[in-house]
Amino acid sequence: MNLKDGIIKLLQGEVVPAMGCTEPIAVALGCAKAKELLDGEIQSAEVLLSPNVYKNGLCVGIPNTKEVGLEIAAALGLVGGKSEKVLNVLADIQSHHIEEAKELLKSGKVKIGIKDTDEKVYIEVKLKKHNGTVETVISNKHTNFTFIKKNEEIILEESNKSEVKKEPYTFIYDMKIYDIVKEIEKMDFEDVKFMLDGLKMNEAVAEKGLESELGMKVGSSLEGNIKKGILSDDLLNTAMMFTAAASDARMSGINMSVMSSNGSGNNGLTAILPIVAYMRKYNVEDEKLAKAVAISHVINSYVKHYIGRLSALCGCAVAASTGAGVAIGWLMGANHAQIDGIVKNMIANLSGMICDGAKVGCALKLSTSASAAIQAVLLSLNDAIVPTRNGIVGETAEETIKNLGVLSEKGMKITDAVILNIMNHMQECH
Fold it and tell me: Ranges for the Serine dehydratase-like alpha subunit domain (predicted)?
């Protein structure tokens, strides 16, 4: 497979619509699939999750409800989810489904627990009804069923290997960042035109967050201060405002889909909305916009290949906003050294930002990440780049990303466990 085809395959596979935070939605998906395979009244449902999925789903709003958390997501999947809609599994939930789900939870038939596994994405559902049992397993990716069993019949069983070894485009992650950017630059508009769908989708969610003052109201608060003249109406603040507003809306459980990136809706917002801010400030033709969004998604996927699909590091900060920075740098005419510099500046700046689960407070991290992306671009275009061997910054962008991957994989495992323990302790106290 050549580089162009690999990039298109990556974009088609990793850039998909999602309604609600992808971790609880993936839990609902696993439950919905199990429910669809067996008729009758539910006797029990045991849902076991990897620590990362558990952490990310603990405190986040669920679409079409005013509820938060994994329990309601699982129950909704069991009573009204539609697995054929994949990450939009709860799109058709009605008020009666919510009441049924609440009654199911009150009955004590649904149990959520943590699976002892090193896998980042793992969701196991064991459903028992009066006429049989069903077991489903999602692993590696939020939509990837690797095991399905109905009674004693195994319907699906896949080798439990990381998805990055199975996908045909993984060779991209061994390539130079600048070579990827130049390849996208050469593509025909028709090859990447579908990227504009996600731009429009996420822009609409940001607008909703601004007008409705959802979540923490980070985006609308920034907008208010811009209108008062306290903050300047510039690219940096506009990027912060739009990105935060979309997260405000999404984390509060708004009934709108976002275009996700590499398994994360917030990654999709962060990868796209700083580009929307640039578009709002400068006249950019559709072809360049589509290519910029493609660059952002591919770089996000590149970084997440090394740090993990879910991590103790905030992927919006170190991966998605790095993609947005590279894309905006490209729009502004950055050369090879400056593209490398954007990556180095981003990782030098935000490598310490932790992920403590999906929640309304993510709007703060997304606004910071968008701000850092613009800052990294402007500094790099002025040839102000973090020097080599400054902390974990390597000779090249690629070496720096790999160093970040080592930090995430080998240095942050205990951090992830400590974060989860703190979150669980606070849940128990309340």
Answer: 153-421
Q: Tokens in use for 227?
A: 């209108």
Domain 17-164 carries which CATH code?
3.30.1330
How far apart (Å, rounded) are the C-alpha atoms in residues 84 and 130?
25
Q: Which residue has the tokens 């958390």?
A: 69
| pLDDT tens-place string over residues 43-93 | 999 999 999 899 888 888 888 888 888 999 999 999 999 999 998 999 899
CATH number of 168-426: 1.10.4100.10
Task: Return residue ranges of the chain for CATH 3.30.1330.
Answer: 17-164
The answer to whether 244 touches 269, Cβ cutoff 8 Å, is: no
Query: What pLDDT, on a 0 to 100 scale, did the predictor assign at position 417?
Result: 85
Q: Which residues pair with 42 in a beta bridge?
A: 129
pTM above 0.85, yes or no: yes
Distances (CA, A) of 10 to 160, 286, 295: 21, 21, 11
Model pLDDT for residues 220-240, shown as the tens digit of each residue: 999 999 999 999 999 999 999
Q: Where in the chain is the domain with CATH 1.10.4100.10?
A: 168-426
Contact between 194 and 13 (Cβ < 8 Å): no
Instruction: Determine if residue 138 is left, alpha or beta; phi over 0 gives left, psi from -120 to 50 gives alpha, anything else beta.
Output: beta
The pLDDT of residue 220 is 97
